[in-house]
# Entry
Amino acid sequence: MADTSIVTSTPFYFQGAWFLCPPVSPRGLEQVESFEVRDDDVFVSAFKKSGTTWTQQIVSLVTSGSNFNEVSKIPVYKRVPYMERMDLSGGPDAPPIISLLKDRPSPRLMKTHLPYKMLPRQAREGKGKIVYCTRNPKDVVVSVHNMSLMHDLHHPSPWEETLDNFISQPPQNSWWNVIPEYWSHRDDGNLLFIKYEDMKKDLRGHVVKIAEFLGRNLTAEQIDEVTANCTFTAMKENPATNMSRDPLMQEKLFKRGKEKGIEFVRKGKVGDWRNWFSPQQLEKFEAFHKEKMAGIDLTFEDEE
# Structure
């Protein structure tokens, strides 16, 4: 029987960016550049804690064709596998997820947190589809902090430390480099750039937008059914999307979260950062953000 125990994560660098193993597989990263992309491949991409699972849920239901309620019961990490991750179910010697994707039937759906420049070369050249979701960095860092408190692979850090680390990330990992790079490709024919805050305002409209981008013709009733399965309440109650309620994932990754009462699907709020930033921290963060985003016409809502 395979050893399914999870060891402490070890940081490592690849092409100037740092990752944690597990969950990211060094062997998997080495295969990304030359990964053979199919025309109907879909990459769900986002900076961590920016609406990735939400986008995975929408994309997987939109492309499923029917039986949305039944599809929604399948763990989202099985429907939309994490491309650069190691196979946590197979022990330390298991093949990386990306190598298992090669034989997966079309259409292949894949999740990634990689910067644009590290995506498969053929995807950058226009093959396949990329749905990119971004989020206000103030809410991102709050979500990153709570993830560190509840995820067994992460080192739990005080809020002040999380905030300082977020601002001082290496360039390849920096929110202020990764997001503007994707934003610069927003008019590419194979990339759809969406914002978490806009999805909160108009979820149904974004289901329609994503379906149209992926060439899926859904009826009004189907759009309504997908939307119902993608609300925050539905996803929080669903163990297939809220991994804290998946018994296997809770045991493998979220024991600390259970002890602290923090779930993988936590609040889903726009503007929760107000409950975390001190006036001094906010002033420093916003000054840093303004400097880094000078000349970039990408803005975010601060309230729902």
User: Anything to note?
Assistant: Residues 1-6 have pLDDT under 50 and may be disordered. Residues 58 and 230 are 6 Å apart (CA to CA). The two ends are 48 Å apart (CA to CA). Residues 20-292 form a domain with the Rossmann fold fold (CATH 3.40.50.300).
